[in-house]
Design goal:
The protein is α+β, with helices and mostly antiparallel strands. The protein has two domains: about 140 residues, TATA-Binding Protein; about 120 residues, TATA-Binding Protein. The protein is built from eleven helices and 13 strands. A six-stranded antiparallel sheet has the order 3-4-5-6-2-7. Strands 9-13-12-11-10 form a five-stranded antiparallel sheet, covered by helices on one side. It has a two-stranded antiparallel sheet with strand order 1-8. A hairpin with a 7-residue loop joins strand 3 and strand 4. Helix 3 runs antiparallel to helix 5 and helix 4 packs antiparallel against helix 5. The termini are far apart.
Length: about 300
């Protein structure tokens, strides 16, 4: 009996330390609901984040919809693995939280850090898993302070396995995580940043800056941009975000200054990863969207 007990305890520890690659993950977590005013709920979430050592980078309303707000934040637990590895992992340096006023209740959701961590760190995720697990627990504690606590995954009916996430692409011949689109090449990192910030100030193009996060020691800067043009958010979000709960934390889209070049994740990767159950029929309805996003960002980084 004692040997059997030891066996099951050992087995339990192994599953805890080495989670199965068959674990199913979904892109978002529904934290819970708040009552009352959306603006007051935004203030409450921002306060809870700050109390837990998050840094608020920005916020905005996708599609300029008064019922939607996205808060973008970062934390040392997100920045530390990026500082270690650098490169494209900078896309994982922020957490997006969505607030949506739906039938007199405010739904609070956020990016599932385990899902996105596996997708963006891939084979390097196991070495950095402790950061994401700690972040997950902090967000769980924050969720418990909402008026109604929920804490369930959503955004995919069955979810994706860890194995699939680490080599994700929508289907055959579609881009992977590192099949990025190069938006521009500059003489150096500082020149790229100066040009981009200048273009935002001049309001060149149809992108509004939502946030910026810098990793100067790695010559990396991530920008998030609101796409308010006629081919932007108002055109493509309603076609793909059709069901409840809404994927509010899907936006804003981002681009990365990486040393002397500027890149973005391919729309056929980033959008599909955010909506992994997207049918081919629906995908075809936004077939021009990846190119439109590229054009919007190219205006900001090239001119």
């Amino acid at each position: 009996m004692k040997k059997i007990l030891i066996f099951f305890i050992t087995l339990s520890i192994c599953f805890t330390l080495f989670p199965s690659n068959d674990l199913r993950l979904k892109p978002y977590i529904m934290a819970g609901y708040e009552k009352g005013d959306l603006s007051q709920s935004v203030l409450k979430i921002e306060t809870l984040l700050k109390d837990n050592q998050f840094e608020i980078l920005g916020k905005y309303s996708p599609m300029k919809d008064k019922n939607r707000v996205v808060i973008i934040a970062t934390h040392e637990l997100l920045k530390k693995p990026v500082k270690k590895i650098g490169g494209l992992t900078a896309f994982a340096s922020v957490i997006r939280l969505g607030l949506y006023l739906n039938n007199n209740r405010i739904e609070i959701s956020y990016m599932n850090p385990i899902y996105w961590g596996n997708a963006y760190f891939r084979k390097k995720y196991p070495d950095n898993e402790s950061y994401f697990l700690k972040l997950k627990n902090i967000l769980l504690d924050i969720s418990k302070k909402l008026d109604t606590f929920k804490n369930y995954q959503f955004g995919s009916k069955k979810g994706l396995t860890v194995k699939k996430l680490r080599k994700y692409h929508y289907m055959l011949f579609m881009p992977y995580f590192d099949d990025v689109i190069k938006l521009s090449k500059n003489s150096d990192y500082k020149t790229a940043l100066k040009k981009i910030e200048g273009n935002f100030i001049k309001e060149i193009g149809q992108v509004e800056k939502v946030y910026r996060i810098d990793f100067p020691e790695k010559k990396l800067t991530l920008f998030g941009g609101a796409l308010f043009g006629k081919d932007g958010e108002s055109r493509f979000i309603p076609k793909i975000d059709k069901y409840d709960p809404k994927h509010i934390a899907f936006m804003p889209y981002e681009f990365l200054v990486m040393k002397d070049k500027v890149v973005m994740l391919h729309g056929k990767f980033r959008i599909a990863l955010s909506f992994p159950d997207l049918s081919m029929g629906t995908f075809m309805k936004i077939v021009s969207t990846p190119g439109n996003i590229e054009d919007y960002f190219a205006d900001i980084v090239k001119k």
